Amino acid sequence: MAKKITQKTKTEMPCRDAGERSRSFDEVALGYTIDMAVAEANRCIECKNEPCIAGCPVGIDIPTFICQVAAGDFQAAWQTLSADNLLPAICGRVCPQEEQCECKCTLGRKFDPVAIGRLERFVADHAASQGWQVGGTIAPPSGRAVAVVGSGPAGLTAAADLARLGHKVTIFEALHKPGGVLVYGIPEFRLPKTIVSREVQALEQLGVEIKTNHVIGRTFTVDDLFDELRYDAVFIGTGAGLPHFPKIPGVNLIGVYSANEYLTRSNLMKAYRFPESDTPMIRARNVAVIGGGNTAMDSVRTAKRLGADHAYLVYRRSRDEMPARHEEIEHAEEEGIELLLLAAPIEIVGDAESRVRVLRCERMALGDPDASGRRSPVPIPGSAFDLEVEVVVFAVGQGANPLISGTTPDLPVNKWGNIVADDATGATQKRGVFAGGDIVTGGATVISAMGAGRRAAQAIHAFLTAPAAAPDTPIGV
Amino acid sequence: MYPVLENELLSQDVHRLWIEAPHVARKRKPGQFVIIRVGEEGERIPLTIADVDTARGAIALIVQGVGKSTRELNLVPAGGTVLDVAGPLGRPTHIEPGAHVCCVGGGIGAAVVYPIACGVKASGGRVTAILGGRTKDLVLLEREMRAVADACHVTTDDGSAGAKGLVTDALSAIIAEGVRIDEVVAVGPVPMMRAVCELTRPLGLKTTVSLNPVMVDGTGMCGGCRVLIGGQQKFVCVDGPEFDGHLVDFGELSARLRAYRSQEAESLTHYCASH
Predict the structure, then answer these.
(1) How far does A78 lie from chain B, in Å, by closest CA?
(2) What ipTM score was computed for the predicted complex, to two decimals?
(3) For labeling, which of A93, A103, A216, B253 is most exposed (least CB within 10 Å)?
(4) What is the pLDDT of residue A470?
(5) What is the dihedral of CA B165, B169, B171, B173, to 10 degrees?
(6) Which of A15, A307, A448 is nearest to A190 (CA)?
C-alpha cells in the first residue's frame, strides 16, 4: 500500500437537523468544509489499479482530482474534474456512489471507501464560490451541427461533450426551464435549483444554445430537424414518459397524483410557495406515497415538508428490496416518514366530492424471487386495512413518451415504446439519430443517463467525422 | 419572451391576444393548443390556438379571465410580453375532407370550434355552426364564424341574442330538418358537451368533444389531465384533446375540474389584494 491508513471511516458530512429540515425545502446535506475535504482526500491510498474510474459511468479521473484536493490545490482539482464532467455539483449530490465509484474503491475492501461523491461536490461548490471557469479544451469548429432533444442529464452530458469536440449544439427542451428531471423531479432539498442553473450556464459558456418551449414531435419532428433546420445528427434524451397508475378503483379521485405531477408541481412550479407562486397543489395532513425507489422517497419527503402530519411510504416488499438509496431512506426516517412495508394498495375510497379519504391496502408476504431477482410479494388473504389519507402519490414507474416515436415512423421502439438503441453507442436504426437515458432504458438513474449521453456523444462524433458523412455528402445517402 | 402584438377586448373579461410565436405558428393545426406562462411565478396555462397568422408568425388566443392567471394574461397590453409559449400541443383535429360538420360552441368554446370550422372549410367540407351563451355578451366570435360557416345559428339562455334556448335546442331543430350531418363537434362547458352527446348518442351521430382538464406540463409527463374514455385511461395532452364524446366519462371530468377550486379562489384573492 502506498499510504498508511489513519482514518478508517468516511469523514462525516454535516446535515441540517432532522426536525428543522422536515419542514424546510433548504438543502439537507451541507457539504464538507476545506478541512474536512482535505482530511477525506488524504484517506485515498493512491492505489495503482485505480478501480474507481471504471466504476464511474462517465469515467472521471477520480484519483487525480482527489490527490489534488489532498494537496490543497483545489483549482487543479476543479480543472481535472470539470474537464471530465460538466455536472459535478449535481453528480456529487445525486449519484449512487455506493453502487459505482465508491463500491470499487480499494480502501473499501477493508474500511469505508473514500467519500468520492462528497469530494466531488466539495470541489464543484468551492469552484463556484471562487468563480473558476471550467477546465478542458474546446476543439476548433467542425462545421457540423447536432440537435439534442431534452435537457436532462443525458442531453446535457451529450451536449457538453459534443461542444467540446467542436460541434455546434442546440438543445431543444419542452419545458420552460432546462434541466429535465434535475429541475422537475429532484427536490430542492436534495439538489438546489441554483446548482442546476449554474451547471447549465457552464454549458452555455461552451457555446451550447438552449431552446426552451420546443416540444420535439410537435414543434418540430425529428425529420424537420434534419430537413428544415439542417442538423447533421440528432440525440434523443427525452427521459421519463407517461406515468403508470395501478388498475385499482379510485385512481382518478381528486388527490391522487403521479409522482411526476406531485414533484413537478412542487419543484418546477414551486407550488410549495403557493400563493406566492401561482401553481397550487393539495396540501394534505395525511399523505401516502406508493413505491420504494428514489422518486418515492423524494415524494414522501416533499409531502412532509408541505406540512403533512403523517407521510406514509407504502411499499409491497421489505426494506431490503427497496431500490432507493440507503442514505435517502435513512434521511426520510430521521424526518419522521412512516414506512409501511409489505403492504400494497387495493382501492382508494373518495367522498361525495370525489376527494380521497381512504387508501385501502393489504399485507404482503415475500414469495420466490421473480424475473428481477427480488422476492415477489404475495398478498395475505383477509389482511386488508385502511389508511385515512387525503393525498395518494404513485411512484411506481412510467411508460415511454409517444411524442417522438409517434411522429418518427422509421424509428423503431420496443414493446414498451422505448426507443431501440445500441447500448454502447446510442445509435438507433434511423440514420444520424442516437438516443440514451430513460427513453431507451426505462426509469433509471441520473448518472446512467449521463453515461449514455457521453457514449452517444463519442458515437455521434465518429459518425460526423467519418468519411461517409463529410459535409458535402447529403445525409441519408 | 414572446411579444403580445394585439390585445382586444371581445366581451366582458374575454380578450383576444395575438402573440408572436413563430415556432408554434409555423406548424399549428386546428384543434391544437399551447401552454402559456405569463411571468416567473406563473402557472402553465393550456389554451387552444384560436387562429394563426403565418405572415406575422403569430397565434391568436381567446382568453376568458376567470382566475388569477387568465386575468393576469388579459392584462398584458399590446407591446408587452409573456414569458413562455410552448407548442403546438395535442393531436390536430381529424378532418374528413368534404364532410358536413356541425360546429357547436358554448361560450369560450367558440374559440375552439372556430379554427376547426376553418379547417373543415379548407378541406372542402360544409359547416353548420351553433354558437351559444347565457346572454348576448357571452356569444363569442359570431362575426368570424358567420364569415366562414355555411350557416350560423345563435342561442342564448335569456333570448338577448338569436333564439332563446340552449345549443341543444338548435341542434335538435337542425337534425329534425333532415339535413345529413356527418359529425358534430361540440366544445364548451362540461354540462353542454354532455347534453350534446346525450342528444346525438341515440341517433348514432358521431360527436367529437375537446376537453380542457387541469394540466401541468402538457407533454404526457405528469398524468394530471387523465380522463376515462370508454373505460380506458387517456391523457388529454398527448391522446387528445379531442375524443369521441359518447365515450367520455363527463362526471369524473367535472369532478376533477373542481380539484383546486378553493386554491383558485385563494390565488385570486391574494392577487387582488396585492394589485
Answers:
(1) 33
(2) 0.94
(3) A103
(4) 47
(5) -120
(6) A15
Which of A81, A101, A130 is the endpoint of a domain?
Answer: A130
Residue A352 burial (CB count, 10 A): 7
Q: How many domains, in total, are found in chain A?
A: 3
Instruction: Output Rg (C-alpha) for chain A, integer angstroms.
Output: 23
Facing A254 at nearest CB: one of B37, B220, B255: B255
Task: Calculate how close chain A gets to B187, using CA atoms only, in Å.
Answer: 23
- Give, in order, the Cα–Cα distances in Å from B61 to each of B6, B52, B109, B237, B264: 10, 9, 12, 18, 21
Question: What pTM was estimated for this model as a whole?
Answer: 0.92
Strand order in the sheet with B126-133: B163-164, B151-156, B126-133, B100-106, B183-187, B207-210, B242-244
Same domain, A344 and A279: yes
Cell, residue A241: 414518459
Contacts of B219 in chain A (CB under 8 A): 174-175, 215, 401, 403
> Which residues, numbered 383 to 402 in chain A, qualify as contacts with chain B under a Cβ-Cβ cut-off of 8 Å?
401-402
| Residues A354, B43: C-beta atoms closer than 8 Å | no
Convert the pLDDT of each residue in A159-201 to its tens digit.
Answer: 999 999 999 999 999 999 999 999 999 999 999 999 999 989 9
- Asked if residue A474 has pLDDT above 80, the reply is no
In a domain, A290, yes or no: yes
d(CA A281, CA A255): 9
Q: Which residues of B touch A214 (CB under 8 A)?
A: 23, 86
Q: Which residue of A has its CA nearest to B274?
A: A276
Q: What is the CATH number of the domain that holds A345?
A: 3.50.50.60
Residue A112 within any structural domain of the chain: yes
C-alpha cell recorded at residue A397 = 414507474
Domains and CATH numbers, chain B: 2-89 (2.40.30.10), 93-207 (3.40.50.80), 211-275 (no CATH)
Cβ contact B221–A264 (<8 Å): yes
User: Does A379 have pLDDT greater than 80?
Assistant: yes
Provide the CB-side half-sphere exposure for A350 (13 A, CA): 19
Asked if A39 has any chain B CB less than 8 Å from its own CB, the reply is no
The whole-angstrom separation of Cα B57 and Cα A59 is 45
pLDDT band at A248 (very low <50, low <70, confident <90, very high): very high
Given A88, A103, A130, the domain boundary residue is A130
**A477 pLDDT band (50/70/90 cuts)?**
very low
Distance CA B155, CA B162 (A): 5
- Is the CB of A280 less than 8 angstroms away from the CB of B235? no
Residues A389, A257 share a domain: yes
B41–A276 C-beta distance less than 8 A: yes
CA trace torsion A18, A24, A26, A27 (10° rounding): 30
Contact A280 B263 (CB under 8 A): yes
Instruction: Record the cell numbers describing residue B172, joined without a space.
Output: 335538435
pLDDT value for A240? 79
